[in-house]
Amino acid sequence: MSDETFRLIVAGTVILATIAVLSCLAILVAFYRITRQKLLLFMERAAPVFDKADRTLSTTIQLMNDLRPHVSELSAEAVEIAKSGRQQVEMVGDLVRDTSERVHARLEQADESLEHKIHEFEHTGHVLKKTVMRPIREVSGFKAGLLAAFSTLKRKCRSDLPDPKKRGPEDID
User: Fold this and answer.
1) Hey, CA dihedral for 154, 157, 159, 165, is it positive or negative?
2) 91-110, pLDDT tens digit by residue?
3) Calpha distance 2→4 (Å, rounded)
4) Considering its fold, how many domains does the chain have in total?
5) Is residue 23 part of a domain?
């Protein structure tokens, strides 16, 4: 390969590289122009949306700034209400506990009173039974004594009479 041919090959390669670089540059410029046009078109269409979003955002920020004191005031009131509610629940719990203790004491008192009354009733029943049974026992004893006396008299009367089996011919009328 001669020098002349080598130079021609190098010159051709440089020309091809230059053409490739220029083609890439042309493609980039075309891509830039198309992108810029699309971006401008997008910006034209999105500008009202961005304006509305900007107004909405500024309104929201203003509302947040306006409501911030009210929110802090409401949260402070909510904390106070929660504390008050807790205190009232504790008071109700104490009241229920106290009432329960009182009811328990009253039930014990009523139970003791009922047991005492039952004991008195049983005692009264025993006394009444004893009181009623004493005359009945005395009458029964009196009756038994009378029956014994009549029985004795009856036996004695029969012993004075002649026995019909032992009667002889003289006893027959």
Assistant:
1) negative
2) 999 999 999 999 999 999 99
3) 5
4) 1
5) yes
